Amino acid sequence: MQRHRDGEIVNAGTAEPIGGAADRAVGNVVDPRPRAGVETTAQRAPVSRGRLPLGVYLLAFSLFAMGSAEFLLAGVLPTIAEDLRITLPSAGALISAFAVGVVIGGPPLAILTLRWPRRTTLVATQAIFAASVAIGLLTDSYGMLLATRFICGLAYAGYWAVAAVTAISLVTPDRTARASGVVVSGLSLAMIAGGPAGAMLSYFTGWRGGFWGVVALTVAGAILVLLALPATSAKTEPSVRSELRTMRRPQLWVVYAATLLSTAAYMISFNYLAAFLTDVTGVPGVWVPAILVLFGVGAFIGLSIGGRIADRRPTHALLIGAIGIAATSVLLAIFAPYAPAVVPLVLVLGIAGFVLNPAIYGRVFTIASEAPTLAGATTVSAFQLGISLVPALAGVALNAGAGITSVAWIGAGLAAVTVPTVLIDRAISRRRP
Asked: Cα–Cα 20 to 30 A to 295, which of 21, 46, 139, 275?
């Protein structure tokens, strides 16, 4: 006898899932067809049930190297503005240029490189990223630096999308979300260590020093991928038509909506956390960087937890994350003046915000299992779009005269809206035969 639970089919007697969340499924319902878009043609190496293969960690390392450039820039904006003799808002546009490149770059690059060997695409995007950063460092032209930042965003999006698909091709279907979580953990490590370390290096060597470190790490990552990553590709000939047909599935866009909303929900509090801590909580400025690192530590913990539960209980992971973001944001707003409450809540916000990321990738690659490349690239765009909407959403409240705590209330509202989108995804999965 069988029954549904959390979007999966389970044996009623044993409560054991029949297949994982990403196990040849449409929704979370088992499909007997082969996972044409995800499997590898180059022989899949036997994978132990314990540790993930080395290739997954290599992909995470490269994402760490490239992601460090994103978090480093915010720490050296004043120095860049002074060196290039531009205004601080103009320097801030360098962040926007990168974000725009990520948002619009992923899907077109996914189509352009669809028939390329995945390892070739990964190495090529890393090479373009490193070259673009280097060219920007060798010029004193603001326009050239702006253009190279945009190209970096394009390459970053292309790498991230293909890395996620490659990671799941290296593991068994029941560990798809965990592998995705490990890859994304490279980004949280960039937040915790890469950005701050690069900023410190730039403090002693000039703002370009940290970015030269990013170039070196990215080149090292590309070499490691080229030499040590197993060659993988789709089991059948990739088809642009199949990829586009998959993108017409409404359920996929429900997951994208949850991605955008949940990302904006936790990032709106994180982006304004420094002002929140100093202006409302009264934390001395010298302690702010250490508290921000707590968010990154929480993100790493959240990815580790989410990666272990999302394969079998994707809806649980998504709901825990969304409700956790909402509750933590409300508590931040209420207890804003009290540092003993706010500091641990920053850690909890990082955990809640990132516990759902592996589940998001698991759902996307489940729904789009036959043509995952474009779907994965669009997931990256949805993440970045959620981050990019934060200044506009916060600006509406702050320009209307609301206090800085209003950003936490906005985050709570966005997280609350995420919950019904998750439930809609589960309802669609359960209706499928």
From this structure: 21
